[in-house]
Amino acid sequence: MEQNIAEAVKIITSKMGSFQPDVGLILGSGLASLVDDVSDKISISYDALPGFPSHGAGAVTGHGTNLILGILGGQKVAILEGRKHYYEDGNPSAMRVPMEVLKQIGVSKLIVTNSAGSMDPDVAPANVMLINDHINYSGLNPLIGQSGDARFVDMSEAYSPKLRELMQRAAKENDISLSEGVYIWYSGPSFETPAEIRALRILGGDAVGMSTVPEVIIGRYLGLEITGLSCLTNMASGMSNTKLSHHQTKQVAAIGAKKIKTLLKSFLQKL
Ligand code: HPA
Known about the structure:
Blueprint: H1 2-16, E1 23-26, E2 39-45, E3 66-72, E4 75-80, H2 86-89, H3 96-104, E5 109-118, E6 128-136, H4 161-173, E7 178-185, H5 194-203, E8 207-209, H6 213-221, E9 225-235, H7 246-270
Hypoxanthine binds next to strand 5, strand 8 and strand 9.
């Protein structure tokens, strides 16, 4: 791992010159269009970066595969266009190298985005939810096997209250309705059953998805300040008559992506 990180950092710094990103951004399913508004873009394919997710057989459609550096909302950003999920090959620390690399090239704040199912009957598909906490329903942890006391990461303010307040201000100014709630990580790749969703609602979840939690754990381990947005692409299993599919996720995410774009630009301007 250490060697991959060092090599990837070397390749990126040789391309970015004096540019130093401050904000990292991880894009979820169907949200790749968020990079359209980035200026002064430097794009580096994951294939050129050791330890980054490959374009291989398990990769998910709807995700880009580049690291993009540039300016968005007046901030220097480093965008991971796509993520690797636990369900692709059973590795909960699949995003460890890219995230370590972001930290080493200067990133101190991280915005995570995802597509998720809404478990809140009052929040319909195509809306956006600000994540205020999570439940790691998988029982997995990307830090298992890590040595040292730093592995005992405090998760009490994993989703920065300060950044949440800025995001809510951005939402208000742009007339975007932004609910707040708890994201539950369910491993996937199959969607949940209606009985599972009934159980997850009792546990206190507002949205359910197959990503993000491992990245937030790694991010807090690295000392990053984090905020997260879920694009709600469907009512969770059993809560509507719509059949769930990845095709449907991508279609609705494209609508939510427009709101997330506006929100993020306004949020970044406030940082
Ligand atoms: N469940 C899990 N992951 C998801 C969903 C869902 O309903 N929608 C989009 N990603």
